[in-house]
Amino acid sequence: MFCANNVDCLRLCKAVIYENGKKKEVTGRFHNWGCSYEEFETGPGIFSTAIIELDNGQIVNCAAETVRFLDRNGEDTV
Fold first, then answer.
1. pLDDT in tens, 15-41
2. Which single residue of 45, 46, 60, 73 has CA 20 to 30 Å from 35?
3. Helix or strand or coil: residue 62?
């Protein structure tokens, strides 16, 4: 497959982010897996994330389990 630029070679995906406590579905290009954490009374909880570039260039971190790659056959909804 020929890619005109590096972004064209990245996998198209849908995922869920939360902005101001509200769920928002996003579509973008998957860059890599990452990790994040949330503080609890008993200590931090570490979880896997997906690093996704949106069409406007914004980079977001999404919970890994919300990601659906769109280059597979089948349903493409999150």
1. 999 999 999 999 999 999 999 988 888
2. 73
3. strand
* Unique residue bearing structure tokens 């406007």: 56
CB 27 within 8 A of CB 60: no
d(CA 23, CA 27): 14
User: What is the dihedral angle through the alpha carbons of 41, 43, 47, 50, rounded to the nearest 10 degrees?
Assistant: 80
User: CA-CA distance, 26 to 61, in Å (whole number)?
Assistant: 11
Residue 52: count of CB within 10 angstroms of its CB:
25
List, for residues 7-22, the tens digit of each pLDDT value. Answer: 778 999 999 999 999 9
Encoding tokens for residue 62? 């999404």
